[in-house]
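Collaborator request, handled under Task 6.
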Amino acid sequence: MDPSYSQAHRALALVLVAMGRHEEARQAMRRARELDPYYPMQSAVSAYERLMARDYPPALAFAQQATTVGPSFWIGHLFVAGVYAQLGNSELALEALEKAEALSGNSKMLSLRGYILATSGRTNEAEEVLRTLKSIARDRYVPPVAMALVYAGLGQRDSAFEWLEDAYQVRDVHLVFLAAGDPKWDALREDPRFRALVERCDFMRTASSIVHAGR
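Structure tokens returned to the collaborator:
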């Protein structure tokens, strides 16, 4: 109906990422950027798409572009942190995360911080993040996936799966990232419980093939 509607191209890209169709998603985001190049969300979603495709250098470039176009756009800084975490640079990841937290503190920031600390061997600090998340959860909703991610980073699989089960029960929207191939969940990906959970979620019929995306 409107081929120049950039938001539709971006939304299509997000669906394609969730289906593991990264080349098509990349093309959709290229078109979205062409139509609205100065909107930081376009660069941020491009970073997300490349991150899910395990193509980290362009993912970092897009995330940094999002922060350049929108310095106060917290999502851009969050993706910078996420890419650096996958590149193994925890210091730069935490530095970017601090910028994101200063702009919009929420459970996503804390969860990613806990994951980064856990995967870089800073166990005590990661466990402190868990205590903070649980304290916050007494007063307001915290997505169970936020807890599960920190436990996954700590290598505590049983606890991670307990929280993922809670996430399933409350229909936590963040479960879609498991099917999309988010590399943060790779430590759990070959566990039969992970495959069973993704299949139960049944986001799309292609999920069973995406689960094995250890690329």
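The cover message to the collaborator said: "The mean pLDDT is 92. The radius of gyration is 17 Å. Please let us know whether this matches your experimental observations."
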